[in-house]
Amino acid sequence: MVIIDGFSLAQRRLGRRLRPAGVAATDDASRAADAGPSEREPVAAQQPAPVAAPEPGPADPPVPPDPAPAPDPAAVASTPEPVAAAATGSVDRTPDVRPRSGFRKDIEGLRALAVLLVVLWHADVPLIPGGFVGVDVFFVISGYLITTGMVAEVAAHGRLSLSRFWARRAKRLLPSSALVLLGAVVLTYLFLPDIRWRDTAWDVVSSALYVVNWRLAELSVDYLAAEQAPSIVQHYWSLAVEEQFYLVWPVLLVAVAWLARRSNGGPTRFGRLAFGAVGIVWAASFAWSVVMVQTDPGRAYFVTTTRMWELAIGALLALWPLRRLTGAAASVAGWIGVAAIAGSAVLFDASTPFPGLLALPATVGAALVLAAGSVNRYGPVAVLRLPPLQFFGRISYTLYLWHWPLLVAFTARLEKPGLAVRALAVAVSVVLAYLTSRFVERPVWHSRKLSVRPRTALAVGLACTVLSVGAGVAFHLATVAPATDGATVRNAQGAAVLRSGVAAGAGVPVDRSPSVVPDPARARGDLPSVYSDGCHGSPTDTAVRPCTYGAATATVTVALIGDSHAAQWVPALQAVAEQRNWRLVTYTKSSCPVLDVEVAVGADLRPYDSCVTWNQSLRRTLAADRPDLIVTSSYNYSAIRDGRAMQGAANNTALVDSMRRTWQGLAAVAPVVVLRDTPAPRRDIAECVSAHREQLTKCAVARDAALAGIGPLQATAAQGLSGVHLVDLNDAVCPADRCAAVIGGVLVYRDTNHLTATYVRSLAPRLDEQLQVVMG
């Protein structure tokens, strides 16, 4: 499972099944106590006042809709002095008393539908591979309710108090959020392997500060993090988007009110300006989202700028004077909206380019359900008002907070967690969500003291944030993996233990090793120097950035070219170059093999355009530099033909043909050594060792399966080519029927398919022997 594809997505749309999806921390604005002084929706004067969006608190019975017309949102323009005060963020000390409003069961039910889609999708329940669209539904609901509440507050009170607005957000969202972040730290310590502790600590800090979506956006394009397990708080990305929205949106509306006042405009003027301003935000964000999904899908999934348009859809609906549908039109529109949401959840999956254009069905569908209202008995409300959906709607925020950490914790140490384990995690999350809502969320949310003292509410929110940040920092400081002592490092033999007569049975998987170097908790950083030296190209780089190692007076130059599987050989080549007084020049780029065909990249298998440009630059550079030897290797890829990724036998043929052409062309420059690709366990060996230090055999994988991939194709392609030499060192990487995770006291892999720099360094003598044969 996994995530957030995720991020497995729960992983970040990095192509994992568990995609980080998050439920927007919507103002449980189906409740009047939270969404603002007046949650009644402004409507055209000829229409009766609609049922207000929010739900009363637990102690307050639902209030029937007021028969009087709803206040005109544009009334803000007629109250210049208070609006100006609001713009300065002045503190309003009047009691937070709100007009009567009714409870909209359709919104509560829609919220339940959204959170259930996300929870069931994260739990890997079949038939809803696109359950992540529940997040988009939440965004629309939030934009609608927040905008309605702010405009109605201005209409009812003559002003929009920024301090009071932010105080409501703080007391509503932060206590429960802080509690779950503290719980996530505890769950991490109890259930997750220590290799995850450091990243979790900083994820908690960024989640507490509501910037985790930007952190995940950067990680989504970090090749080194692409196949790591998703964060236990990855789902906070959508809450971060919402909190950033809450900071910007009220300021935008205050600015619009100020402009309306400056132009001496009336209600109509304000309405037009507000609708126009929100429309511009929608158009700009939507266009950027469409572009980013094509050019940088990892970032596009998480960043606020590509998601703002979804919130703006709800805001536009709140500002549209004729937004309320009636009669048969309301019923039809509402059911079309439900069908659009459900269809997206069933037809989309983790490989779907998202958000962009394909987020329109779910977001517009949510807007249609909202526009259909709650008074038409033949509309979606007939289902959405059912008691089970109302229950899940009431706990939707806390259920979203709890479900993901529990799913991650319950499945962290299980290779193949079954449905029963995931169902148990969901059941426990429902219980904790109810208890958190009952004893934390609602008591703070409905506190009269906090309602009349915005500064106190803000102080409570600040305290929750400081507590969460402190917990993350403290967890990091308390769990830093100690550095391996020098003697242990020197005694770790790695591949040297496989030499004849050194150790009987060396390389066969065993449960225990006297030492493991590097320590699994530090394995992610055991990298070739090209990463720290800044010359390993990122997925977006097109320019060749070489690194040069060895003596300046060297008479032999070796060029290493290829992707990260070529780059992993740098430590061994550096050792050989130092011993032979050679110069080593590296030309590497993430996920970019040296081939004359375009390859696919990412979970959606899109054409890798930057790799094509980089390859062209590389060929020109090699032709100019004229190295004495070219060394290359690569991982497995899908070739692109007619804009689509190839599969199966056709892809294998295309790769072999491309390798033969490419290598033959390179051989005209210098002899070519092809390092057969190393076995790929396709499971995170470093994390497995971290979790099973006393049962290392659990981390062993079958040799035949690990060797399947591009290795056999490389062997086929090299046959009969003049000036091309295949070097296979895999008997020193996986010498038994099952590939061991630790050999000679050295951790072999740092992730699912890359060797640790320490183990590669131990292969230097073997590589030197092979290169001497080639060099004569």
Blueprint (SSEs and pairs):
Blueprint: H1 32-35, H2 80-87, H3 105-122, H4 133-157, H5 162-191, H6 197-208, H7 212-220, H8 236-262, H9 267-295, H10 297-302, H11 308-319, H12 327-347, H13 360-372, H14 381-384, H15 387-394, H16 396-411, H17 419-445, H18 448-452, H19 454-478, H20 486-491, H21 529-532, E1 536-537, E2 547-550, E3 557-562, H22 564-567, H23 570-580, E4 583-589, E5 600-601, E6 606-607, H24 609-625, E7 629-633, E8 640-641, E9 644-645, H25 648-667, E10 672-675, H26 685-691, E11 701-702, H27 703-707, H28 711-718, E12 724-727, E13 738-739, E14 742-743, E15 746-747, H29 757-762, H30 764-775
Question: Key terms for this structure?
Answer:
single chain; 776 residues; alpha/beta; 7-stranded mixed beta sheet; two-stranded antiparallel ribbon; 30 helices; 15 strands; elongated
Question: What would you say this structure looks like, in words?
Answer:
- By secondary structure, the chain is α/β, with parallel strands linked by helices.
- The strands form 5 sheets. Strands 1, 2, 3, 4, 7, 10 and 12 form a 7-stranded mixed beta sheet that branches.
- Helix 3 crosses helix 15 and helix 9 runs antiparallel to helix 11 (308-319).
- The longest helix is centred in the first third of the chain and has 30 residues, at 162-191.
- It starts with 31 loop residues before the first helix and ends with a helix.
